[in-house]
Write a structure and sequence with these properties.
Number of helices: 1
Helix content: under 10%
Largest sheet: 7 strands, antiparallel
Distance between the termini: 6 Å
Mean pLDDT: 92
Number of strands: 16
Order of helices and strands: EEEEEEEEEEEEHEEEE
Structural class: mainly beta
Length: 263
């Protein structure tokens, strides 16, 4: 067996109004070659340690009962290789529903005697060796939509609740339109702090080649942050809501020198 890791450590910023959004990317790509799997090359990816911040220092340009923003309401992640010889075998996290702790497990159990591989058993012992990663992080008030296919690992992270637990699906949901809220002038809900400060991303996955590969490949990563601003004015029996949305996309190209990894 031979494997080698190729990390990428990057930091990018983008000014939005009077604040600065930022992505801190901690990516690790591991190439695994095995004598028992002559027809496959494995490339494992994980984002452990990666996070996105709507405002550097954990502050928004506006944070009052009638104006809030810009806060992070979504992050789209796309991870793919620039080679048609690989496909996505497994990735995580799976689609979740407002879980406080989100786990990402992308591991393959390699049966060295049979030359087969599949997900790590949830019970019992491994049948061979395990490659890939498994980790978790606390991401309260958010959910994940897994829309990956054979070509790309794609995860959409979405804000699912306001700071006081009220449901959130779009910017206007930040306005408290409950009976009690309207009696108080329909103030804006608080924004969960994780939607302002560093929010962890827990994406991971494994690409497998359909035939043994020795050529270098490029890993292409796109991260799009959805940032929202909400402003409301209240008059008797009338609430006027103004929203703005900004999108920032950070793109990375990471060379993975497969040719350096020998069985």
């Amino acid at each position: 067996m031979s494997d080698k890791s190729f990390p990428l450590d990057a930091y990018k910023e983008q000014p939005i109004a009077d604040q600065v959004a930022a992505l801190r990317l901690r990516l690790n790509a591991t190439v695994t070659q095995l004598e028992e799997f002559r027809n496959n090359t494995f490339i494992s990816i994980d984002f452990q340690g990666t996070d996105v911040a709507a405002g550097r220092g954990g502050k928004m340009s506006h944070d009052k009962k009638d104006k809030r923003g810009y806060y992070l309401e979504g992050v789209d992640i796309s991870i793919r290789l620039d080679s048609p010889h690989y496909y996505v075998k497994i990735d995580g996290p799976q689609t979740t529903m407002d879980a406080a702790t989100i786990s990402s497990s992308s591991q393959l159990d390699l049966n060295l005697s049979l030359g087969t591989f599949g997900p790590v058993p949830t019970t019992g012992a491994s049948t061979g060796m395990v490659i890939g990663s498994a980790f978790s992080s606390t991401i309260e008030d958010w959910r994940v939509e897994n829309i990956s296919d054979d070509v790309a690992i794609q995860h959409n992270y979405r804000m699912a609740a306001c700071g006081d637990g009220a449901r959130y699906n779009q910017p206007k949901d930040l306005v408290d339109m409950s009976a009690g809220g309207q009696m108080s002038g329909a103030p804006l809900h608080e924004v969960p702090h994780i939607s302002i400060a560093n929010m962890p991303l827990v994406s991971s996955g494994i690409f497998v080649s359909r035939s043994k590969q020795v050529s270098d490949v490029k890993l292409l990563v796109d991260a799009t942050a959805h940032l929202a601003y909400v402003e409301k004015t209240f008059e008797v029996f009338d609430v006027k809501i103004k929203t703005k949305t900004e999108r920032v996309t950070w793109s990375f190209v990471h060379l993975i020198p497969v040719s350096e990894v020998k069985e």
